[in-house]
Structure formats: C-alpha cells, structure tokens
Amino acid sequence: MEKEKSFRTAKFSVTVLLMALLMYSCGSVPFTGRKQLQLVSNQEVIALSLQQYQEFMRTAPLEKGTANAQMVTRIGTRIANAVATFYKNNGYESQLENYAWEYNLVKDNSVNAFAMPGGKVVIFTGLLPVTQTEEALAVVIGHEIAHVIAQHSSERLSQQIALQYGGAIAGGLLGNSQAMQQLGNTVFGLGAQFGVMMPYARKQEYEADEIGLIIMAMAGYNPQVAIPFWTRMAESAEGAKVPEFLSTHPTDSKRIANIENIMPGVMQYYKGTGVQNQTSAPIKTKADVPVETEKTSEKWSF
After folding, report:
1. Does the active-site annotation cover 292?
2. Residue 260: what pLDDT?
3. Considering the domain boundaries, does residue 109 fall inside one?
4. Residue 202 contacts by C-beta under 8 Å, 6 or more apart in sequence?
C-alpha cells in the first residue's frame, strides 16, 4: 500500500515537472504568433542538422555559375535580406544569430526542394520546368526559408524528445547524447532517398505557405503567382501523387484553397517593386539532366 502510494506520488511529480518544462519551453512563430514547443536551442539544432547537410553536399551534383543557379541565389538573397530588415526594424535581429544562408541548385530530375536549419536551401533542377518563372520559384524558396525562420525542424525535434523521453534529456545534451544523435538522424536525415526529408506536419506546411508568401512579397515578388504555380504542380503530379494521409502534406486543392483565403492579407506586404512575371531565365527540362540522376519525383519536401 505504502509502495503504491509512493509510486503515485512519484508519477504525479514527474507529470507536474513535465508540464512545467513544456510550459516554459514554448516559443512563438514569427508573423503568425503560433506557440510552439522548443526544448532545444536553435543553435544546437543547427549544429546537429549541419552534419546531415554537409554529408548531402559532398555527393550532390551541383549546378554552378549558370543563369538558373544565379537565379536561385538571387531569389534567396532577396528574401533573406527582406527577413533580416524586418527583424531588425522590429527588434528580433537576435533570432537570426548563427544563420549562414546558402542557396544551391542540384542537378536532379526530382520535383523537389528542401531547407535545413541555419539557412541551407537546396533546389532541384527538376522543379524549374514547373515553376517556369522567377516569381514562381520565389514561392518555393520563400516557403523553404519560412520553414527555417519558423524553426519547424526544432519544433519537430522537440516533439520527438517529448514523445520518447518526456523532455528529460532536453537542454545542453545535444552534442554528446547518442539518443539525441539518433533523433537528429530521424528528423534531419536525408535518408536513403536522395534529398527526401521527413515530412513536416500539415499545420507547419500551411504556416510555411503563409509566411513564405509574406516574405516573398516583402522582397518584391508578387505572391499571387502562387496559385497558378500550385495548379501546375498538381497537374505535373498526375498519376504520381502521394496520398495525403501518407505524405502528411496538404492536398493540392486544400493548399490552393488556403492560399486563396489568406491572399488578401498577404497582399498588404506587396509593394510591387520587384520582378514582374520574369521569364527570361533559362528553364531546365528533363532532357537537360542525365538519366542516372533522376530520382523519386513524386516525393516533395515542400
């Protein structure tokens, strides 16, 4: 009897401790204000994910110096600069500490793009025939940068920690904990399939859509191009679409409907000072990419 009472007391204490930990480990997402779980620092998450990124980059067939590669860098730089200006003007500049932005174009037929914590953005050449224009590519890059600044990877890692360990190993143990390393490999690992990361949750995808449109608008790109872009994406995926319940991504119809719903608010950030329907940059086709680099085009990370 006494032993059972002690067990219940201990269990209650652990529950209270966990609740307190979760309460004091919340952050908020820029632009949307949504509360999110943050059991580890952004600096720790960047350090862990950087290992995976560097491993990927060692073998990735990069396209450098071309008009398309320059376009990827130009878009990323403009959007990241717009974010930095906004953060500085609103007193949030410290949130971008430890970021080192990189933008790479990878020669691969996959209709794919992904970003890693700390500002590592990768675009695959197979995406360019679908984007078609600079502004439409800005939709994707804005979305990826949104995942980064919203710290979605940190939130995802924190959720895994809370589920598996009750938060017990959070805080300062990332560098020397084998368990944390294994979790990091699950969350950030690019896996056996080339450039395919663990999918984000639906709410994170919708949030990245919204923030991405806002920051591309702040950079001078017209966010209204997002609707025709996602329509083309849906058409390009005919016969190869991953079911929503397996991919955890929003279906194209739901994503487009949500974008249409938030567009009036997003347009408040657009001043019309940027590229207008840019089409002059070269566009890659499947014929431009060696057959041996073609990978699972039906899986998207954005």
Report:
1. no
2. 96
3. yes
4. 248, 249, 250
